[in-house]
Amino acid sequence: MTQRHRVLFYTLDGKTDKANDILRSWGMDESIELVGCAHPAMAAPTEEQLQGCEGFVGEFAPVLGDTVGAMARAGIRVAASMSIGMNHMDVAGLQARGITVANCPGYCAEDVATHAVALMLDLMRKVTFTNRDVVTGAWDPKAGYQAYRTQGRTLGLVFFGRIARAVVPVAQALGMHVLVWAPTKTAAELAEVGCEKVERLDDLLAAADVVSLHCPLIPETRGLIGARELALMKPTAYLVNTARGELVDEKALVVALNENVASGGARGIRAAGLDVLAHERTPLRALIEHERCIVTPHCAYDSVEAAGALRRMSLEAVCDVLMRGKEPVNVVRA
Question: Fewer CB within 10 Å, N side or C side of the chain?
Fold first, then answer.
């Protein structure tokens, strides 16, 4: 019998049944042996866990510092991250040691887009805010700020990748005009999907009724939305972030929300809907407890379908390297 390639399947629950079903459907189950290993979120694999494995599939698994060397010493040839963002992996360090790195771009685009729209509608219709009032014993249909229809309102998308693109038809179906600030996209390209390009972020912030962030976290976007940018937004505007928490200066956001409440809606911004925070394990309490802020626990990506896509895409990368001897479609380079 041909020797099987061992792959550390390092996930939150450590279960391999669904992943093995995928391998079986590809005729790879006799060649790939998945070693399931459950772990707490953001816990790195140990050298002992990696020992004897040629491949690594990681969910919420940092590969930084000493872990990079541990992978090389164990003989890991491919490391597939069940994610889009790669801030938790030392891609350059892994590549320098001959380890192929892959990710899963687009696996949850529809899910995150739906979540962004859900947060937008929640804010515009005051769903969570009025529910909070009802829970306390109040019954006031006009509680809080005034609600406006989506029809005729302007949605501003910051960057235009798969997720932002998936937001567009939903927003248009709701009767919204869509502005986009995306330096790498042309006006003609955006016009093809019914969007209007703005040349400056400042112009988008000043014009939009809802600003939705869809940027990767890179040096140029860290702290992209700070006190100056929030001051450019309409006092009736909403901020939605389903991208990366570090895009926003959270203390400045608290100030802008407080200012709106204190001024009766004349200054600051009206409300915010966030699925990501700068420090999710130690969040800024003043923000997550704010009366004008909705926070969900970085769950926009989550669905049964997205989980299935993650398994397929990460296993495909492993099979490409270990079985087919080729570079994965979604290889990541430093």
Answer: N
Catalytic residues: 244, 280, 298
| Numbers of helices and strands, H then E, in the chain | 13, 12
pLDDT in tens, the chain (334 residues): 467 999 999 999 999 999 999 999 999 999 999 999 999 989 999 999 999 999 999 999 999 999 999 999 999 999 999 999 898 999 999 999 999 999 999 999 999 999 999 999 999 999 999 999 999 999 999 999 999 999 999 999 999 999 999 999 999 999 999 999 999 999 999 999 999 999 999 999 999 999 999 999 999 999 999 999 999 999 999 999 999 999 999 999 999 999 999 999 999 999 999 999 999 989 999 999 999 999 999 999 999 999 999 999 999 999 999 999 999 999 999 9
CATH of the domain at 35: 3.40.50.720
Domain membership flag for residue 31: yes
DSSP 111-168: HHHHHHHHHHHHHHHTHHHHHHHHHTT---TT-SSPP--STT-EEEEES-SHHHHHHH
| Segment holding 79, helix H or strand E | strand 78-81
Same-domain pairing of 68 and 165 = no
Q: Is residue 327 part of a domain?
A: no
> Residue 158 sits in which domain range?
109-295
Q: Report the predicted TM-score, pTM, of the whole model to 2 decimal places.
A: 0.91
